[in-house]
Amino acid sequence: SYKFWKTQPVPKFDEISDKPIQEGPLETKTVEDVPKEPQKLIDGFEWVDMDLTDDGEMKEVYQLLNGHYVEDDEAMFRFNYGTAILKWSLMAPGWKKEWHVGIRDCRLKERRPLVAFISAVPMTIRVRNNNFVASEVNFLCVHKKLRNKRLAPILIKEITRRSNLHGIWQGVYTGGIVLPKPVSTCRYFHRSINWKKLYEIGFSPLPSNSKPEWQIRKYALPERTSIQGLREMQKKDVPAVNKLMNRYQKRFDMSPEWNEDETAHWLLQPRSDGEEQAVWTFVVEDEHKNITDFFSFYNVQSTIINHPRHKILNVAYLFYYASETGLTSPSVDKAALKDRLNKLVSDALIVAKRNNFDVFNALSLADNTLFLEQQKFGPGDGSLHYYLFNYRANPIAGGVDKRNLP
Ligand code: YNC
Ligand code: MG
Fold first, then answer.
1. Which are the contacts of 40, defined by CB distance < 8 A and separation ≥ 6?
2. How far is the CA of 156 from the centre of ligand 2 (A)?
3. What is the number of the ligand closest to the CA of 155?
4. I want to staple 248 with a disulfide (CB 3.0 to 4.6 A). Which of 36, 267, 269, 322 is the partner?
5. Domain coordinates of the chain in residue numbers?
6. Could you tell me if the ipTM is greater than 0.95?
7. Which residue puts its alpha carbon closest to atom 18 of ligand 1?
């Protein structure tokens, strides 16, 4: 019945109209309207700002998420965000320590364990022709022993308050569960890289008319990439990639708007010594030294919850990509774009295999439906819902549109 969500500035499920609605904020407030203090927690619990530049505090966030963050419906896998990818997601340009919000259990005087977390980073988002700054909220997590006690709404109200204190009134978030009311819904697709392992852990079934050898052969990939001029992105590519990205994203109704700092951060992941690589980005440079295309993917491991031999699943997630082929005016040649994206993603799969990934995930958004089938992605069970907080928008087609499914 959405007792909490009913009270929040989000669209209701029954707000349907035949005509397009006027897009924009649902409510307007000023910083003076915002409480200066957080809501008081019940006795024994305390708000904390987590300092992610401190290895010890970073480890606490890592361990909370590692034990208690998102699982699939059958509880076979749980996300295992490593500290490198947590830093990358949570310390993006404009990050603030007070947006890394924790709750400690102080009943245990000595240990004071971290038992809940929520975070945000600021981003500029474009919805059709409007750009606005929003809090991108992620990593909402409550310890399993404190579930169903209405702590989640308290965390959500607190990250909202802290966003509002910075004059930010909109939020962006995604989730596997249905809440009022998704602006878009996408489906997950998976492309096996290490089919044998995926089969052994119960992720991939053996089709009744197939054999393991046939499946392995089906998903085999060449050793070498095929596109001339493909190379890893470097710092010097940032201005060109930034321009290409923002031009290409105009193809879509909703997208982030990155400046050069954000482009560098999200595609090149500033790394300290010995830190693991979280994101891979490749560009295509033509004979005139122009950047004509790029693709990127990032790594989130999952813990395989109950398997005697396999403990970790190495998953690549397709991130952003762009190609001049999608920008030819006055109208885009769909067949040429389809051909180009298939070449790019085929090379992305080869790079992922070389880096020991087991599976490559992509959503039914952006131009992904142009290559999913040909690159042997198969639909998964999961959906991902996209939400806007305090912003009314007409629905955005994505995976929801059945015509987009292969
Ligand atoms: C969820 N994922 O509906 P109602 S995604 C939002 N996002 O409220 P309780 C959620 N709301 O229905 P529990 C939610 N999950 O009564 C549940 N809710 O109105 C709502 N899981 O609270 C739910 N991480 O504390 C209900 O539930 C109310 O103890 C129930 O805690 C929930 O990060 C949770 O899936 C998710 O750790 C913390 O189950 C817990 O079950 C858990 O009794 C595993 O809460 C990890 C997990 C969620 C991943 C994510 C995005 C979060 C977005 C939050 C919304 C942000 C809004 C924008 C704010 C900024 C605005 C500005 C400016
Ligand atoms: Mg709770």
1. none
2. 12
3. 1
4. 322
5. 5-172, 185-404
6. yes
7. 152
Question: Is residue 10 within 6 Å of ligand 1 at its C-beta?
Answer: no
84: Cα within 13 Å, side-chain hemisphere: 16
| Per-residue pLDDT band at 109 (split at 50, 70, 90) | confident
Q: Can the peptide bond before residue 29 be classed as cis, meaning omega within 30 degrees of 0? A: no
Task: Indicate if the pLDDT at residue 39 is higher than 50.
Answer: yes
- Determine the residue type at 51: D
From the CA of 154, how far away is ligand 1's center (Å)? 10
pLDDT in tens, 71-90: 999 999 999 999 999 999 99
In terms of CATH architecture, what is 5-172? 3-Layer(aba) Sandwich (3.40)
What's the CATH class of domain 185-404? Answer: alpha beta
Atom of ligand 1 nearest to the CA of 141: 37
Compute the distance from residue 142 Cα to the ligand 2 centre, in Å: 6
| Alpha carbon distances (Å) from 19 to 22, 365, 392, 394 | 10, 24, 14, 10
89 touches ligand 1 (CB under 6 Å) = no
Q: In one letter, which amino acid is 204? A: S
256 ligand 1 Cβ < 6 A: no
Can 5-172 and 185-404 be said to share one CATH topology?
Answer: yes
